[in-house]
Write a structure and sequence with these properties.
With 435 residues, the chain is α+β, with helices and mostly antiparallel strands. It has 14 helices and 20 strands. The strands form five sheets. An eight-stranded antiparallel sheet has the order 16-13-15-14-18-19-17-20. A five-stranded antiparallel sheet has the order 6-7-11-9-10. The protein has a three-stranded parallel sheet with strand order 3-5-4, covered by helices on one side. α4 crosses α13 and α10 runs antiparallel to α11. The structure holds flavin-adenine dinucleotide.
């Protein structure tokens, strides 16, 4: 059966599939595949736009290897099986009175797929999901099982938290969680020039700040989410009623926006006016909700995406170039650009390694031409030393990435130690890490 990713940008026909339900079964699958001379890839939720999980060898489907196996409520440390989705994790954490300190836009990814590609949310003082990892258990190419943390095999830990599945199959992930918290959400339109003028103020003044900019409109949608006490408590915005949430997120952001996109795909000359219309009709929302309900929104309109992390201070240069270049593209752009922030971290292949970062994500509606747009964006991002998201479309190779990541050679050394025969290879890993 052919495997496809969410966006339809990658597919593969694995020679063999395994559905392991224990660490031992993961190890046995790797050993059996090795005995047949097959390479091995773990499948997450298929939400990478890059062919990171694609394999013609053995695919390990971890959808039966889910759930929490240990929780220490006093420290907030919880251990989850690697196939657990973030949605399942959020539900389980809720029932324990815990939460992840920061999350991305969706919850359909597995926790191991998310950390392996450096998945992140936004927050100038916060890191991506991999920074929340306290320990990992990995099954290596020879079927042996190793654990790592900041104290136990620290080099392996620094390499394995973001490793695109190159070192082994993660069997469990231990996460440092925090007591459950609510967020007060404030979403409002603002002229994009004004957002950029006040960028540093917004980044410093909010726990989670991001904005969406429609390339042909003048308005950005500014999102400021801040930690607060109880949902709907005194002085805190009320929770959003279920009907309004449905109207705002399902009808407006998915059904109506999907209809606009289909119209634009059918009649491309309408894309620019539709994009301006979407920008002009942005409205204000204020509400409070448990943190994961604010972080995560449904994404039912399919798109392709590229994203680069750039040094925070270069955001103005990057957006100025993009704003100048987009109107000159042969094919117009339907989707907004998303801008987020993250704090510097110490994970060797984290896109925010060693520098406070801004993330710029560009999208195009599925079925519309995107190549020229993505090429333009990539040329702008690499001119400021940008690092591509490991799970989003880019054309960078190992030679470029070695210049972008100070610890790249250390990562390759650990890869040589952990997987000398390249049991976990695939064409994408060959592109980004070399043979
Ligand atoms: C609609 C949408 C919204 C998104 N929003 C965001 C966002 O807000 N922020 C962001 O940063 N990214 C975002 N992404 C990208 C997404 O988070 C990443 O691509 C993530 O890797 C997807 O996780 P997955 O479980 O689907 O993994 P997959 O795409 O299936 O796999 C990713 C990689 O992880 C490896 N892997 C999976 N499981 C294991 C394991 N157990 N052991 C070792 N390796 C493993 C795979 O082999 C592969 O190399 C979004 C993607 C989509 C489609």
């Amino acid at each position: 059966m052919t495997w496809h990713n969410w966006a339809g940008t990658a597919s593969a026909d694995p020679a063999r599939r395994y559905w392991p339900r224990s660490t031992e079964e993961i190890a046995n699958a790797i050993k059996e595949a090795a005995g047949s001379g097959l390479t091995v890839r773990a499948l997450g939720g298929g939400h990478s736009f890059t062919p990171a999980a694609a394999t013609s060898g053995a695919a390990l489907d971890l959808s039966g290897w889910t759930g929490i196996v240990g929780a220490d409520l006093s420290s907030g440390l919880i251990t989850a099986r690697s196939g657990t989705t973030i949605r399942e994790l959020n539900r389980a954490l809720d029932s324990l009175g815990l939460a992840m300190p920061n999350l991305g836009d969706i919850d359909a990814q597995t926790i191991s797929g998310a950390i392996s590609t450096g998945t992140h949310g936004t927050g100038a003082a916060l890191g991506g999901i991999a920074t929340q990892v306290a320990a990992l258990e990995l099954v290596l190419a020879d079927g042996s099982v190793v654990s790592c943390s900041a104290e136990q095999r620290p080099d392996l830990f620094n390499a394995a938290r973001v490793s695109v599945g190159a070192l082994g199959v993660i069997s469990t992930v231990t996460l440092q969680c925090v007591p459950a918290f609510a967020l007060a959400a404030h979403e409002a339109p603002m002229h994009v020039d004004q957002v950029l003028e006040r960028f540093d103020e917004f980044a410093a003044g909010n726990d989670h700040f991001e904005f969406y900019w429609f390339p042909y409109g003048t308005n950005a949608l500014l999102k400021q989410n801040n930690r607060t006490g109880a949902v709907g408590g005194a002085g805190i915005p009320s929770p959003m009623p279920g009907w309004r949430r449905f109207l705002e997120y399902e009808v407006m952001e998915n059904a109506a926006f999907g209809a606009l996109c289909r119209t634009g795909r059918a009649v491309p000359r309408l894309i620019k006016p539709l994009n301006r219309l979407a920008s002009a009709t942005l409205s204000t929302r204020r509400y409070s909700a448990p943190s994961h309900e604010v972080f995560v929104t449904p994404r039912r309109v399919r798109f392709v995406e590229s994203e680069y992390a750039v040094p925070r201070e270069s955001i103005h240069e990057v957006l100025a170039q993009l704003r100048a270049g987009v109107p000159r593209l042969a094919h117009p752009v339907m989707f907004p650009v998303e801008i987020r922030v993250a704090a510097a971290d110490d994970i060797w292949l984290s896109t925010a390694y060693g520098r406070d970062s801004a993330y710029v994500a560009i999208h195009q509606y599925t079925g519309l031409p995107y190549e020229e747009y993505f090429r333009l964006f990539e040329s702008i991002a690499i001119a400021v030393g940008g690092r591509p998201h490991w799970g989003k479309m880019h054309t960078r190779d190992a030679a470029y990435l070695a210049t972008a990541y100070p610890r790249f050679d250390d990562f390759l050394r650990i890869r040589d130690e952990m997987d000398p025969d390249r049991r976990f290879a695939n064409p994408y890993l060959e592109q980004v890490f070399g043979p």
